[in-house]
Design a protein that fits this description.
three-stranded antiparallel beta sheet; single chain; DNA/RNA_pol_sf; Reverse transcriptase domain-containing protein; RT_dom; elongated; 2 domains; RNA-dir_DNA_polymerase; alpha+beta; two-stranded antiparallel ribbon
């Protein structure tokens, strides 16, 4: 059996959250906070409407939109196109949260200037002033913040090599002679350096 749903699809309310009672159904006019799928739904919408211009002169992440251009003239044209798309999809921005024609910008915890991606100074300060964690949740929070900047921290690359590269061990050379001796009560009180010297003296005597 084949069912044609075209007529039903025409009258179906798409991508909206409905609240129904015995008398009527209502829906949000704007994206509600708190719903599990709200960020995913909004992210999908933003990527869909800006798809023709993504990575050409627009980068979007949820409600953060960055417009980048080579010249001021291009920037004006690109900005007009972005506003046109927002208007067509009934999306609005607050003037107080907008800035234009900037040579440097902070975006998603990073600082962008002169075609370079850098760590945000406020985040660096937060890492430097972070109190030593004493509990597991505190440690996880700290590692989460630091891990966000892993590509800027050389120690992460060293740690990555240490846990991913196979260690190379030297095979035992049976042609070499080994010697050992038991320390007496006095020698047991020696420092590490004194014990090393004692071992050298013992080796030379034997």
């Amino acid at each position: 059996m084949c069912i044609d749903y075209q007529a039903l699809n025409k009258v179906t309310v798409k991508n909206k959250y409905l609240f129904c009672s015995l008398l009527t159904c209502t829906t949000h006019l704007i994206m509600p906070f708190g719903l599990t799928n709200a960020p995913t739904t909004f992210c999908t919408l933003m990527n869909k409407i800006f798809h023709p211009y993504l990575d050409k002169f627009v980068v979007v992440y949820l409600d953060d939109v960055v417009i980048y251009s080579n010249t001021l003239k291009e920037h004006v044209e690109h900005s007009r196109e972005v506003f046109k798309i927002l208007r067509q999809n009934e999306l609005y921005v607050k003037k107080e949260k907008c800035s234009f024609a900037k040579e440097e910008v902070s975006f998603l915890g990073h600082y962008i200037k002169d075609s370079k991606l850098m760590m945000d100074g406020s985040k660096v300060k937060a890492i430097q002033e972070w109190d030593p964690p004493t509990k597991v949740p505190q440690l996880r929070s700290f590692l989460g913040l630091v891990n966000y900047y892993w590509q800027f921290i050389k120690a992460f690359e060293d740690l990555k090599k240490a846990v991913t590269e196979e260690p190379v061990l030297t095979l035992l050379d049976h042609t070499k002679v080994f010697e050992s001796c038991k320390l007496n009560d006095m020698e047991m009180c020696y420092t590490v350096q004194e014990n090393e010297m004692t071992a050298i003296v013992h080796y030379l005597r034997t």
